[in-house]
Each structure stands twice: as structure tokens, then as C-alpha cells.
Amino acid sequence: MQLSTREAEEIFSKLRVEAKRSSHHVAGFVVVNGVKVLPVHYSFGKKALPGNVPQRFRQSLRLTTPEFANLKSCKLSRDDYIELLRLKGILDQTIGHRADG
Amino acid sequence: MSVTYDSESRPLVLIVEDRAPSLDLRLRLYRNAGFTAIGVTSPDDAIREIGASPSVDMVVTDVNLLPDRGDDKSGVALAKYIKSVRGKLPIAGYSAYFNTGEMQPDEIELFDLWMPKGSRGTEQIEAEVIGCRELALEHHRARRDDADETLSLLRRRYEVERPEVETLRRLVPGEGDAAEVESALRDAGYRLRLVDAGSHGLAEPFIVWLMDVGEHVEAEVYGQPILYGFGDSEEDAVSNVVELMRLFRVDLVEGGERAEGPALALREFLLRVLA
Q: Does A40 touch chain B (CB under 8 A)?
């Protein structure tokens, strides 16, 4: 599985991850209705994230490989993604059904 | 004057004597009697050495350290100062004042051992040295016992004998489902490493999984799969993970927003581990 830094940045943008930067990382959270629920990050330094790092990035988003491929290819919207998290039990139902944060 | 620290069996004595030949004689005699001996020629130098040498076990001082003053008792003032800052440090004084009745009772009380000066041969001085050795050894043992007791208290407080081993045992469950996962990780080539708190300015140590992947090393914090990183070496990978932890902490702890689920668990971990 391949993932470039640019692709990771695009995913962050699509999911509206609220992120901060340091020397080597961009780290932030998937936010739903003002609540930080899922920590995610990617690292600078290489155009392609090496080794197992793309898998780890996918896992941090709680997505299977096909789901992640859909996210990368814009077949999965943010709303769809949030609903997936809810169906997987990752989001507490009390956080709310509106998925636009 | 340089300071020599004593071994387990050689107490350290500080000799204060303004006259060089007398100082040299006493240094030789005390060293022959099994002391580590250092010498100074003035009260000011003695105060400096006491402050710089916590392992001094005894002070032996002339009372008349300023011979230009006929009635000088600067050795008494020195003893008074030493008792005020190191109350348990034994002090031996020697002076003709001790056998002429010119020392007041409260001045004599400052000394644990006092010796009249005057025409006294090497044999008499050697006898004094033996008396001083007993006092010095007693102080040396008491100082060592205090240190051992303090160390025991610290070990009980932090529940560790060897921090790196005990922390590893506590943090690695090795039972049930965790054992299966750990076994699978080890089979895949991962190894565990303890990240020392002191080396990265942390409040607590933590454990990472490490794995060589091609030309780099990947690291993941044990129990916190979101905290992963990579580097050209183990040190780089671990440093990058710590940097990531600090970045998340800024957002989670100082950001003030509400956190739930995995974000909440991460915040609790970061609050515990990061200083």
C-alpha cells in the first residue's frame, strides 16, 4: 500500500482534521460536533510514507483497505466517513448525528 | 588545595594549620594512620573546603590560626561555624590555650576532642591521631547509614529496585489476549524498548515497539497505536514519537476542547507521561 505526504494532506483536508504542525509531524483530530474523537497524524520527511506507515495511517482512521482506497479516490465523503465511524461503534451516539462538526 | 574523596575504609580529615611545617607533619601522620588527609592554612580556606566537600569526616584545627594576633582564637570561631552548618561533624582542636585555662567552657564544648599544644613529640601526636580516627570512622559510618536509609526510602516510595527492569515488568502484561498480540508482534520482528524518562524530559518512562523496515526504524508506543513514528535509527524514531506526543498534548491538554473515545484515552496517557 502506498501513500504520499500529499495524499495524507488531502485526506486531512477532506475530513476537516483540525491539525497542528511541528518539525516532523502534522497531527490533529477528527472532530464531530465540536468534540475531538479520533487522533490522526502523518509525518514529513519523505514524499512516500515508508514501510508500514501507510497501513498505520489507514488504521488510525479506523478504515479497512477498501474503505481507505475509496477515501483516497474521493468515493467516500466526510459524511460517509463519519457515518462509518458511527456504525463501527467508534463514535458515541450522544455526540450527535450531524456529521459536519 | 584539591580535595581527595575517601574510599570505604579511609575517612577524610581536613587539617587546619597556619604553619606549613606543622601542617606537613600532621598530613603525613594522619595519612600513615589510614586517613585521606587534606590541609588548609586559614579559616577561610577551611570554610571553603567544608562547603565543597560533603564527605569530610573530621576537622582537626589549631586554635591560634592568626599568629600575628597574640590572643587569636580563630580556630574557635571556625569550630563554631562548622557546628552551625554541619552539627554532626566531629572537630578536634589543639592549642596551648587548652592547658593554660584560657578556654571558656562554651568554647571547649565546640570540640569533640581537644589537645593541649606545646612540646609534644611525634608519639603523642600519633596517639591523638588514633583518637581522631575513631571519631572520624564513627561519623563516616553514620553518614553512609544515612545515605542508605534515604536510598531505601526512595526505593519504597517509587516501588522500584532497578527502575528500568521494574517498569518493564509492570508495563508488559504478557497474559491473555495481550500475550497473543505480543507474540505475533515479536514473530513479525518487533522488539520492545524502554524509553527512559530522563533522556527525553518525560514524567514517566514508557515502552515502544521497534522494528527495522528497510532503511529505517519504525516505533509505536506500547498500548497507544496512534503514537507511531519512524526514523533513520532507533533514536530518531523514538525522538520523533516523543515530538508527536508533545504535539498532541498541545492540542489535547491546552486546547481546551472536549475529547471523547480514543482522543480522551490519548489525553490521559499524555498527561501521565509528559512532564
A: yes
Instruction: Find the largest Cα–Cα distance for chain A.
Output: 39
The predicted-structure confidence for B1-38, as pLDDT tens digits, reads as follows 333 333 446 788 999 999 888 898 888 889 888 888 88
Residue B137 Cα to chain centre, angstroms: 20
- pLDDT tens digit sequence for B106-121: 898 999 998 877 655 6
Q: Which helix (H) or strand (E) holds B99?
A: none
> Cβ separation of B247 and A95 shorter than 8 Å?
no
Instruction: Give the separation between CA B56 and CA B23, rounded to whole angstroms.
Output: 17
- Quickly count: other Cβ atoms within 10 Å of residue A30's Cβ: 27
pTM for the whole thing?
0.51
Closest CA relative to residue A34, chosen from A80, A99, A82, A87: A99
Instruction: Read off the amino acid at residue B236.
Output: D
How many alpha carbons lie under 13 Å from residue B241 in its C-beta half-sphere? Answer: 32
Q: How far is CA A96 from CA A9, A36, A44, B236, B270, in A?
A: 26, 13, 34, 41, 27
The ipTM (two decimal places) reads 0.85
